[in-house]
Structure formats: structure tokens, C-alpha cells
């Protein structure tokens, strides 16, 4: 039987979340330690555990049909792969940072400087686009210590909270790109694998929509229902149930999590009470 081969990071910042996503998509993996590969027990997929740096190459060659990794790594490796889905986790930015006491004068600061990074191709492209002539020192890890030990004047690296930079006496001065985990695919994927991928993508979207949305229930005076429905249009339209108390109803809808705090004040001003916001497990539009 055909199987869909999925490459995920063996160990690192993406591994747990990648497996968690598959689990939420209903894919059960045996409880073994991560060998090179494992097969799901209830869906025709095989998981290959690899270093994230190798995933683009495996997917370009079709050794894996799809792979989960950081967009930054996809751009750095620059292989011929399809970008299929953005996955919404492992969000970070890639930035240039310099010693905190240095005066930053703008991007020309980097002219004739030496910059340490694990992402040389991406940085070189950025410098070419900005007409900067700098030297790029490629190192494998612990980039943030490079200025302190005299290896480079500045660094180009992943930043999430900025605390690592702070601890190493650095400050972020240019954000070059934003990244998140993405799903990439083999451009010549065969028909049976393509069908499995379609099924998996459907599930991934249901999980992602569920993450991004909340179920909202509230009590409202009937006179405010029209205004509240405009504010909370939901998936098709809100559900309205009468309350025993005359003139009141219960309104159920769906709201994007990132919009919730913006509309809550308005809901209250319309007279909404007893507002409940609850998680959604799966959401199919
Ligand atoms: P490997 O051993 O597989 O080569 P690695 O050391 O290259 O792993 P990790 O540090 O595990 O990589 O990071 C993997 C990816 O996770 C990065 O390419 C980036 O997309 C994302 N990432 C890294 N650091 C952070 C962070 N602090 N916050 C959010 N996402 C991050
Ligand atoms: Zn890596």
C-alpha cells in the first residue's frame, strides 16, 4: 500500500510540536524512541526523523514526500520544494544584532563589518539587496557569543524573546525576516501520495482553524441582537436561543482569538453579559 513519507525534525525546537500536530490530526504513532523512521498505526504515513537542515534536500529528491521545518531553513537551503502550508508554530524572526553599546547608524553600519551566522545565504541575499559590502562568517551554532570572543562584529540569528541577545550584551537592530514552521512538499509527488496529502492537509486546516478560533456564548438583551450579530458573524451566522427571562436571549458564535480582546468592550457596551469563550478542538469550514 502507498504511504505518505513525512520528514520531521529528530530533536530540537520543532520536534514535539510537529508530532503534536500529527497527533491532533488523528495520526497515531507507536510509542518507540525515535529511530530513523516509524509508521503510524492508523493512517498510511511513515515518519522520517532527520536534522532540520537535511529536510529540504530529502523533500527535493522525493525521499520524503513532505516535511515540517522552519521557513528560515527552507529559504536558507534554497531547494526546489513546494511551500504547502504555514503551520503557525515556532514563530521567530531573523535579525541582525550588534553589541549594545555600539551606536547604530542604519544599515550602512554593516559595511566592512564581519557578521557571524548559521544562515549565510539568506544574509548574503539581504546584503546584496541593500547594497552592503560585509564579510559573512558561517558558524554552526552559539552564534550569539561571536562578538564577545572577537570572532565577528555582529550576528545574524534567530530571535524570539530577545533574552539571549540581552544576556550576551547584544541589541537587535534590523529584522530581516519572520519565520514559522511550514509544510513543504516534493514537487513531483505521485498521485497516491498526493491523495493522502490532500486528506492530511484537510485535517491540518481543521486543527489550525480550531487553534485560531474560539466558541463564544453570551447573554444579550433582544434589542442588541442585531448589533451583536454584526460584531460576531461566526461561521455562517450566530445561533440565538431564547432565555426563560423575557427580553433576553443566548447568542452563540465563533470568534477569532486575536480579535476577542478588541470586541469584548463593544459587546459589553451593547449589554452582553455572562460571556463565555471556550476552545474548539476541530473546525471544518
Ligand atoms: P538540528 O539539530 O535539527 O539541526 P537546529 O539546532 O538547527 O536543529 P533548532 O534550534 O531546533 O534547530 O530550531 C529549529 C527551528 O525552530 C529553527 O530553524 C527556527 O525556525 C525555529 N526556532 C529556533 N529558535 C526558535 C525560538 N527561539 N523561538 C521560536 N522558534 C525558533
Ligand atoms: Zn539545524
Which features would summarize this protein structure in a list?
single chain; 285 residues; alpha/beta; D-Maltodextrin-Binding Protein, domain 2; Alpha-Beta Plaits; six-stranded mixed beta sheet; five-stranded mixed beta sheet; 15 strands; binds zinc ion
Q: What would you note in describing this structure?
A:
With 285 residues, the chain is an alpha/beta fold. It has three domains: 4-89 and 181-189, 3-Layer(aba) Sandwich (D-Maltodextrin-Binding Protein, domain 2); 92-179, D-Maltodextrin-Binding Protein, domain 2, CATH 3.40.190; 213-279, Alpha-Beta Plaits (2-Layer Sandwich). Helices cover 28% and strands 32% of the residues. The chain has eight helices and 15 strands. It has helices spanning 15-24, 55-60, 71-77, 120-129, 163-167, 191-212, 225-231, 257-269, and strands spanning 4-9, 37-39, 45-50, 66-70, 82-86, 92-99, 114-117, 135-138, 154-159, 170-179, 181-185, 213-221, 239-242, 248-256, 273-279. The strands form three sheets. A six-stranded mixed β-sheet has the order 2-3-1-4-11-5. The chain has a five-stranded mixed β-sheet with strand order 8-7-9-6-10. A four-stranded antiparallel β-sheet has the order 13-14-12-15. A hairpin with a 5-residue loop joins strand 13 (239-242) and strand 14. The chain is flat, with a radius of gyration of 24 Å. The two termini are 31 Å apart. Bound molecules: adenosine-5'-triphosphate and zinc ion (ZN). Zinc ion (ZN) is lined by residues 51-53.
